[in-house]
Amino acid sequence: MPSFSADVKNELARLMYRRPCCRRAEVAGLLRLGAVMTLGAGRTLGLTFATENAAVARKALILLREAGPVETEIAVRRFRRLKKNNIYTVRVRPGPKVSALLKSLGLTPDTMPQAAHSGPLLRRSCCRIAYLRGAFLGGGSVNRPAAAYHLEFVTSNYQIADLLQSLLKRIGLPGGITERKDAYVVYLKEGDAIADLLALMEAEAGVEAFEVARNVKEVRNQVNRLVNCETANINKTATAAAKRIAEIRQLKAEGKLSRLPEPLRKTALARIENPDATLAELAALLGVGRSGVNHRLRRIAEFAKEEEEH
Question: What pLDDT, on a 0 to 100 scale, did the predictor assign at position 21?
Answer without folding.
Answer: 93
